[in-house]
Amino acid sequence: MGPLEKMKDQYTQRDSAARAWKKQGGKVVGYLSDDAPDEMILAAGLFPFRMSGNPAEGTEEVDKYSESFYDPSVRSILNMLLTGKYDFLDFIIIPHHSDAVLKLYHQLWWIHQVNPAVNFPPVHVFDILHTPFLTTALYVRESLLNLKSKLQEWSGRKIDIKALSRAIAVGNENKALLKKVAELRVAEQPRVSGVEALQMIGSAGFMLKEEHNKLLKEFLDGASTLPEKDGVRIFMEGSDLDNPEIYKLVESSGAVIVAEDSNWGNRYFEDPVDETADPMEALADRYHARSSRPRTQSSAQKVAYTVRRALEAKAQGAIFYLLEWDPAPAWDEPDQIKALKAEGIASLSFGPQKYLLSDSDQKNIKAGIQGFIETLREGRKEGLK
């Protein structure tokens, strides 16, 4: 099995590496989003596991306790906790990534109160603020120190500077290698599809970074022999997607997704931690003020980011895909579409969509994508005349 196939397998069987670690006597820390410092978890000698939902799992158990009108991926995670799919977790870190993610903490507490028979692993809230001020930076630094203390308590070992620096270096290497994968996507003739990129990026959160780095290096060593991907170049914008369902629909319609604005995609490996600074200070800076963190950006900054990334990827079109009960991306969409149009990049918008698409949903969405792709293809032909 080659390195890409191994990463694809890890992306599909997301809990396999963590369960193997647990079987050998290790402890696993589940965390949500890209706002939890997995470097610190690793430095504590624990397995950092990025939690994600599963559209195919349904929501039968969570429906007993929770309303339906909030981020469906977070509801799916709660359902998986209730049904034992995450029974290998020893601890959970919930960062204040969004209101929906923070809501999970309150729901875990409330469910146990109304039904004491339901137990969850110990939970720690990594409380970070979303404003670019000095007072916020100081608050995040304090939150990071609290998290350090909690991880030391959980692991029974001290997190020293040497271990933390080592974990940061491994994480930075992972980001650098994933950036090289991204370069293969934006080449004149892409050699990595959008689906493959999601699988490679996503698998970084489901296995130890050192093992992931080995697979990435092996994959990149053979990059020159990868087949070229043909199709209209598409940039993806909108909700963060923890599964490749919509990517498969797009790329089976005659397109190749060359980049995206998503923390399950290209945003994941942007902004490495400063290895020249004190490790704790560097982590505080990265998880507070990093440029790839949209929740601390103004609307104008987010629009500029979208346009810059689409142009760098030489995208011919952009597809906006929004999940139901995920309203935040919709605020900037009109300005993003307008700015992209000014650069000659047409857009297609879908939203709000179900977390799990029915056969009918998929058919309708694919028909819309195919029409859009054909329009872009005809436009390219016109430009060549």
What does this protein look like?
This protein has 385 residues and is of the alpha/beta class. The protein has a domain at 12-159: Rossmann fold. It is built from 14 helices and eight strands. The protein has helices at residues 3-12, 16-23, 38-43, 72-82, 99-114, 134-155, 161-185, 194-203, 209-221, 245-251, 279-289, 299-312, 328-342, 359-384; strands spanning 28-31, 47-50, 91-95, 123-126, 232-238, 255-260, 317-323, 346-353. The strands form two sheets. The protein has a four-stranded parallel sheet, sandwiched between helices. Strand 1, helix 3 (38-43) and strand 2 (47-50) form a beta-alpha-beta unit. Helix 1 crosses helix 8. The mean pLDDT is 94.
